[in-house]
Amino acid sequence: MTTEATRAHHIRQRVRVWFGNHVIADYIADPALAARYAQTMRKRFAGLKVTSDPVPIAAPTVVPDNDRPLPSERLWELTP
Predict the structure, then answer these.
(1) How far apart are CA 38 and CA 44, in angstroms?
(2) CA distance 2 to 53
């Protein structure tokens, strides 16, 4: 069985940017990195909906074994 601390460590966040009903960006990472990415995407796409949802641990086909690097865009210039 998994303890609550171990489970919290393995939870990932899925950040999506929506243009109406269409997802135009989808990124899964650990919570801290996902929050940073979501904040940047909200600034870059101010008029669009940005969601951040936990990814279930029992979904190995959705959760990567390790974090993907951030997209190779110049997103971080937008953060303070």
Answers:
(1) 10
(2) 21
Distances (CA, A) of 64 to 18, 28, 42, 43, 55: 22, 8, 24, 26, 11
| DSSP tag of 56 | P
Residue 37 lies in a domain: yes
Kindly state whether residue 77 falls inside one of the protein's structural domains. Answer: no
Would you state the structure tokens that stand for residue 1, as one six-digit string?
Answer: 């069985």
Q: What angle do CA 14, 17, 22 make, to 5 degrees?
A: 110
Please write the tens of the pLDDT for every residue from 7-22.
455 589 999 999 999 9
DSSP state of 79: -
User: 22 is in which domain, residue-wise?
Assistant: 10-65
Residue 58's closest CA among 16, 23, 12, 25?
12
pLDDT value of residue 77? 57
